[in-house]
């Protein structure tokens, strides 16, 4: 029974990785692509590592998988933030239809 749960978790993780890859190809600008990959990356790795833990034979292997997941849990959001922050600092603008200046109040526009 535990092997079936492991296969299902690995399959869901692979499917989520494909959804993230599809978002990387399909979305219009760098920030949206980064959001799609950053969101699916952590959950995808959690599902795959959980599925691998279901197939593990010893506690040492499970501990190593938990350490790998903790490393990915901390580094994935940090790397996404670093990429987005540097892109913003270098002047890469959003590809959006609503501009920030349209949110100004009537008093500020006059």
Give the low-confidence spans.
none
**Level of helix content?**
over 70%
Average pLDDT figure: 86
SS class: mainly alpha
Ends: how far apart? 69 Å
Shape: elongated
Number of helices: 4
Radius of gyration: 20 Å
Q: What order do the helices and strands follow?
A: HHHH
Task: Tell me the total number of β-strands.
Answer: 0
Bin the strand percentage: under 5%
Major beta-sheet overview: none
Structural features, described:
It is built from 4 helices and no strands. It has 110 residues and is an all-alpha fold. The chain is elongated and about 50 Å long.
Notable characteristics:
110 residues, mainly alpha, 4 helices, 78% helix, 0% strand
Q: Could you provide a short overview of the structure?
A:
Helices cover 78% and strands 0% of the residues. It has 110 residues and is mostly helical.
Q: What does the secondary structure layout of this molecule look like, with pairings?
A:
Layout: H1 2-26, H2 30-55, H3 59-89, H4 106-109
């Amino acid at each position: 029974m535990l092997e079936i749960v492991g296969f299902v978790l690995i399959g869901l993780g692979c499917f989520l990785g494909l959804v993230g890859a599809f978002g990387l190809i399909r979305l219009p600008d760098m920030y949206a692509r980064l959001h799609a990959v950053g969101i699916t990356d952590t959950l995808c790795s959690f599902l795959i590592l959980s599925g691998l833990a279901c197939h593990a034979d010893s506690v040492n292997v499970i501990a190593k998988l938990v350490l790998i997941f903790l490393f990915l849990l901390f580094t994935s959001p940090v790397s996404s933030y670093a990429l987005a922050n540097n892109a913003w600092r270098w002047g890469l603008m959003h590809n959006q239809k609503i501009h920030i200046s349209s949110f100004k109040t009537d008093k500020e526009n006059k």
